[in-house]
Amino acid sequence: MADIRGKNVLVIGGAGFIGSHVVDELLKEDVGQVIVYDNFARGGRDNLEQALADPRVRVFEVGGDILHTDILSAAVGESQMVVHLAALWLLQCYDYPRSAFEVNIRGTFNVLEACRDHSIERLVYSSSASVYGDAVEIPMTEDHPFNNRTFYGASKIAGEAMCRAFNDRYGLPYVGMRYMNVYGARQDYKGTYIAVIMKMLDRLDQGLPPVLYGDGSQAYDFIYVTDCARANVCALKSDASDHFYNVGSGTRTSLRELAEMVLELTGSDQSIQYEPAGKTFVTNRIGSTEKAEREIGFRTTVELREGLAKLIEWRDAHRQLVAERASRA
Length: 329
Known about the structure:
Helix content is 40%, strand content 16%. The protein has 329 residues and is an alpha/beta fold. Strands 3-2-1-4-5-6-11 form a seven-stranded parallel beta sheet, with helices on both faces. A three-stranded mixed beta sheet has the order 12-9-14. Helix 5 (151-170) links the parallel strand 5 (122-128) and strand 6 (174-179). Helix 6 crosses helix 8 (255-266) and helix 8 (255-266) crosses helix 10 (304-328). The radius of gyration is 19 Å and the shape is globular.
């Protein structure tokens, strides 16, 4: 196993949904500093509230954007290991494809270049199961063909290819993580690009039924965010290099099953509302977990029902906290 004791770990995108949980998981280890590099475009300091109480955590002094190569290089230079999570998400990439290229492709090249220049001992790169597109076979192993047709997936495929190229030419040690559908505490519940679970909960708050487009048979692999974060730490601590791993539960859940579970956990008497199917990027994607368990020692621990209950509890508490702060302002 790789030794992370006493090492400074830079978490790029460390104030975000997944990134802030990676910071929390790293603090359970005997690391040196955990340096958060974030431009706070989506992530917030609230996500780091608990972590910042630990003296090992600090936010990099200058606003961290991966397009600012001099600032990025300075942050990487203070670290021995890097976790790279900064990216525009799927729907943002759909709406803003040039920005998807700038941030997800050029920005990732900047990260790789800085890691090479500073002889980083280990990089964990956040890819996505979007590289696969719709499933040809279930469960999808890491050898599944790339059937992606989205700008987001294309940017992640490019990032993977660049990781391999930097490894081949410069010997940069990396591990890539292909996330399935990540959900949980600190997930966005405001704005345009919110996840399907949050949309369901928003509808219920308004006294409206959750809406599914099509028959609700679209099926995915949901993984709770703390498990996802722990997978990153497993990758940092492993001896694996130049490999990509699915990060998921391996469990198939249809959107209809998901909606029924949300209704049950919230005690709602609403019924699911079905609407004609619109544009759907992927309808069937469940990942194989065997390679990640065998090679980096990762497997999920939070079942979907438990994770949804945690998410609902966090969402209610966070909204109450925001309301209390607003009333005191």
